[in-house]
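Input record (Table S2, row 215):
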Amino acid sequence: MTGNRTATVDDQLFVSLGNDLALLFATPLLRRPLPNAAQINPGLRAEVIRRAATEPGVRISNRGGWQSKADLLDWPLPEIAALRTAIVEAVKTMSSLSPELSGRAPGTTQFKAYAWANLNRMHDYNVTHLHPDSHFSGVYYVDAGNAVTGGTIQFTDPRPMARAMPTPGFNFDRVLTVLPASGLMILFPSWLEHWVSPYDGPNERISIAFNCTLK
Ligand SMILES: [Fe+2]
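Output record (fe (ii) ion complex):
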């Protein structure tokens, strides 16, 4: 597959189920618990709380809460360096799905990334959005907090025509939820719409979001 629009079903959007069934237009989602989460989360958490108390936040898709400027990957902390490494590894894994990218010599696929922190308290949420001008986007949960049911990231089905013809037993157009967990990193295509349900825990929910653009 070379990125043209006449790809056959034998490309990376085709997932065989091992019999005569397959999934077309599959959407990749990476879910990776970071093995060094226990080492980096306390420092990340303290830094986000410190900055949230002293720096003005920005408002984009967030309703309530505090969002940092998108300069997080430049914060001078060893924990941020570790996070950068984890982002590189996640993008590498995602790229392995692409025959074109995985066929390149090691180190030749480059990307740029930027990140920002989010601190949500009771009732804070993010409206439905996607991440324009980026290829893959991700979230790292520094502290998932202690929500009862809220604070989840919810992905909507990117196939709008599925909504026009509900199919009994299939619900192609349903919303798929990822439950946050401290130390979990997720990565998904930036065009995949999502929102964050209102947080409903007494403690802060802290996450780091990032955008990656392949060169
Ligand atoms: Fe987002």
